[in-house]
Amino acid sequence: MRIFTTLLFSLCLPLLSIGQQTIDGSITFAGIQRDYILYVPEIYTPGEAVPLILNFHGYTSNAFEQLNYGDFRPIADTAGFIVVHPMGTVDLLGNTHWNVGWGTSSVDDLGFTAALIDSLSAEFSINQDRIYSTGMSNGGFMSYHLACELSERIAAIASVTGTMNVNQPATCSPGHPMPVMEIHGTADATVPYTGNFLFGTTPAAVAYWVTYNNCESTPSITAIPDTDGGDGCTAEHQVYTGGNNGSTVEHFKIINGEHTWPGSAFGGVGTNQDIDACNEIWRFFSKYDIHGLINTTSVADVNLTKTVSVFPNPANDAMTIVWPGVETADYTVSSLTGQLVQKGSLSTGKNEIDLASVVPGMYMMTIGQQVIKFVKAE
């Protein structure tokens, strides 16, 4: 879906000029020029294989909007992975899309994705065992499509507001246990949580992968603290463990959540702010390669399990940060252009920071390996 293009462009244009990190690229596949936006963090070193995340936009949206709406760049800067934002083609209605089996599209997006991976792998040092797919809405459907039909290239997937087609489970043929995360709002009017004649229900998609991966049928369920009472929704985290090769299935059920990306500053009411979808997705992806659960745990993995609560967002003159760590932690607040605005230290529990002198706008707060985007209100 179209996501506040003008606002995003004005806020995020400075990011596109930082160094050589953001690259507009294209390949020719099946006689069509296919575009993409690639983000390579500064810490990338040629010759050292790194993970790759495919981040697919939603129907009518585009690569630039997804780059900013589901923004993994701050996490990539510390975790060291590369993110590519492919661009869909225009359908008969004039809308950008991914061919996931509904509609009249004949575009070979599976072949394009494989060719894109090959092209990027020829140019950058990509760990072929650690290629992941995520996306918003139609991009979430695309991630399920890859899990079913291109599993030999994909280690794990995460869908935000997407699901599986009604008949897709009958034809899905993954070649290995597939760790899956689904993030979906119960008030989603575009891709209904309860499904329709085209889209399967969200619980049915979760159940398919629980069964396929041979996970325990009963999940552990955790209510996420409602740290932002103004977002109009709450979150529940369901985790199905015990799958083959250590695979799990995770579901963030956003109760009263709408067709939005949790943690995004651009979504408005119905966009859950109790979790950050990008942080949760990378926490999930970082545990797996294509063979299953990775036995080693990195410092980044450990830090990402300590979820920081930051509220309210947007904030006025003060913001509360709940730091779950047992030791103090430093934080910084930076503008979108990377200029340091404020810094300080956090103690265990609740901390209140003064934002009275901060100019209204969008900022990034960094605490250890975690990056939280927030808005200072007028």
What does this entry look like structurally?
Helix content is 21%, strand content 31%. It has 9 helices and 21 strands. The chain has 2 domains: 5-304, Rossmann fold (3-Layer(aba) Sandwich), CATH 3.40.50.1820; 309-376, Sandwich (Immunoglobulin-like). It starts with a helix and ends with a strand. A 10-stranded mixed β-sheet has the order 1-2-4-3-7-8-9-12-11-10, with helices on both faces. Strands 18-17-20-21 form a 4-stranded antiparallel β-sheet, with no helix packed on it. Strands 15-16-19 form a 3-stranded antiparallel β-sheet, with no helix packed on it.
Quick take:
With 378 residues, the chain is α+β, with helices and mostly antiparallel strands. The protein contains 9 helices and 21 strands. The strands form 5 sheets. Strands 1-2-4-3-7-8-9-12-11-10 form a 10-stranded mixed sheet, sandwiched between helices. The protein has a 4-stranded antiparallel sheet with strand order 18-17-20-21, with no helix packed on it. It has a 3-stranded antiparallel sheet with strand order 15-16-19, with no helix packed on it.
Give the strand order of the largest sheet, numbering strands 1, 2, ... along the chain: 1-2-4-3-7-8-9-12-11-10
Count of alpha and pi helical runs: 9
Average residue pLDDT: 89
Question: Distance between termini?
Answer: 28 Å
Which overall shape is indicated by the principal axes computed on the Cα atoms?
globular
Secondary-structure-based class equals alpha+beta
Task: Summarize the helix and strand pattern as letters.
Answer: HEEEHHEEEHEHEHEHEEEHEEHEEEEEEE
Let me know the number of strands. 21
